[in-house]
Amino acid sequence: SLVGILDRLEARGLVARIRSEQDRRLVFVKATVAGHALYQQVEPRIAEIHADLKTRATAEEWQALETILQKITAVVPDTSTDAA
Q: Tell me: the pLDDT tens digits for 67-77?
């Protein structure tokens, strides 16, 4: 489950959980310095996978993926100013 994944990332010091000051039921997840460092190490491989996936998918499949991701991000609130 997502909570289990976050528990493991937090235990490894890669993320921190931050409660919203406006609504204590909301918990934001923020990458730590160590989490950012790890991302910098793996980002080139992520870019390779992305490029490979894009060459394997048809234009229609790629458009469908983009549409789905846009729908997902449309329902996720922008919390960039909540959890500083």
A: 999 998 888 76
